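Team,

Forwarding the record for the chain on the shared tracking sheet. I've put the sequence and predicted structure together so nobody has to dig through attachments.
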Amino acid sequence: MTGTSGFTVSGYGPQRTGWARMAARDSVLRRLDWPLMFAAIALSLIGSALVYSATRNRTALNGGDPTYFLARHLMNTSIGLGLMVAVLWIGHRTLRGAVPILYALSILLMLAVLTPLGSTINGAHSWIVIGGGFSVQPSEFAKITILLGMAMILGSRVDAGDTEHPDHRTVAKAIGLAVVPMAVVMLMPDLGSVMVMVVIVLGCLLASGAPKRWIFGLIGAGVVGAVAITALGILDQYQINRFAAFANPDLDPAGVGYNTNQARIAIGSGGLLGKGLFHGTQTTGQFVPEQQTDFVFTVAGEELGFVGAGLILLLLGVVLWRACRIARETSELYGTVVAAGIIAWFAFQAFENIGMTLGIMPVAGLPLPFVSYGGSSMFAVWIAVGLLQSIRVQRPIRA
């Protein structure tokens, strides 16, 4: 199999017969990572049930239509699947050449958020409202351009055979590429997205074989940056209050600590098997705010219990396991770094989202991959799955 998109069968030439095209499609389908596909689809379908349970009674949000959020969640998932197919068709190697354009576009979109075009939703000024109930969060797509850009830079000389590992100059360029979008997102400010981006950078550097001094230096810079951000007052007061409530859960249980307290009550009340789908008292009573997005895991904990919540964790584990296998089996550093960035992204975001509902992580406004309601986040994770599948399909065929 050759070609940048991975859809060409060697030996057929440019004028392929119908049988050749069928053989090409069959080859692609056979080489897809089906456990990854099934796990991601299952998570999205479970998410649709949880989103419906969390929103069907919230007339102030759904406008009197109990299926409003369910329909949109399924639509977002369908669009996400379409984007995955498009990325697989184009191929991650072809996208490598388009990285400068994609990077510039993501920066422009994030800068647009800082203009009057930007809107504040749930305390975060990180959205562009298009109209008709649709909005875009550019920082979600910036995660993709960061990992693609870093992979392009870190893998350029290694994949060309010039060196075994990225040198200091190459690593500095890759970090510089990531710093610009992180700085723009910090101006919004969207601390949760910045945290994910930092983890993506670390994942890319670790997978590339970059000198360890860069890893430790980046961690140290992150600590210094966190102190400086707090001292300079860049964060909004609600973000500072969230960290204060995390450090001291009893600080303001009826105020800033309300979300996490209600989340723990909902999850704890589910027991082993849960109260039954659509029968959660905390969910039905609308005690947990933002339950269809940031706190969707509380619906699983209350209504599906430890078993249902454990199933979500298992499916997320399958996604990460298959992504790790794809990263390990690809023959090019570019593909390895792309896959590693996605692994770091999914792993941290899932840990942060679930952790904040359990009270072991501060509230950062991050969705649970594939499960939470949200268009931009759903599109981004399925684009990432498309990249993983492209890496899988285009790997050399073993004898």
